[in-house]
Design brief:
The protein is mainly α and 115 residues long. The chain contains seven helices and two strands. A two-stranded antiparallel ribbon has the order 1-2. A hairpin with a 2-residue loop joins strand 1 and strand 2 (64-69). Helix 3 (28-42) runs parallel beside helix 6 (83-97) and helix 5 runs antiparallel to helix 6 (83-97). The longest helix has 15 residues, at 28-42. It starts with a helix and ends with a helix.
């Protein structure tokens, strides 16, 4: 399958930082294309969705570099972005969560502990 070949080639670690990287902040087309590509890669593919869930983003904060989980970072950037970016962020989350109960539970667990 083509998707498996793309994942095996190491495309995921190259694509995943693009939607949130400060280096791509002025290139909305690149951010949107990378979100769409990631969405297609993780759609109904548990291995790719697990890679997305395990991915980390690095960003500057107060002169330091911090590492944080990628999925919440996608949400943080997506919610403050234009409507197209918001729609593609939603598509990415839906693609990753669809038919993936393990990821659904993993993302819901922190919410349940705060209730």
């Amino acid at each position: 399958m083509l998707r498996d070949a793309v994942l095996a080639s190491g495309a995921f670690p190259l694509l995943s930082p693009l939607p949130t990287s400060p280096a791509t902040a002025t290139d909305q087309a690149l951010r949107l294309a990378s979100l769409a590509a990631l969405s297609r890669l993780v759609h109904r593919h548990p291995t790719a969705a697990a890679q997305l869930a395990a991915a980390r983003a690095t960003r500057p904060l107060a002169g330091k570099s911090i590492s944080e989980p990628m999925l919440p970072r996608f949400l943080a950037v997506g919610l403050r972005s234009n409507p197209m970016h918001q729609a593609l962020t939603l598509e990415l989350f839906c693609s990753a969560l669809e038919a993936n109960p393990r990821l659904q539970l993993a993302l819901a667990a922190p919410l349940a502990t705060r209730a």
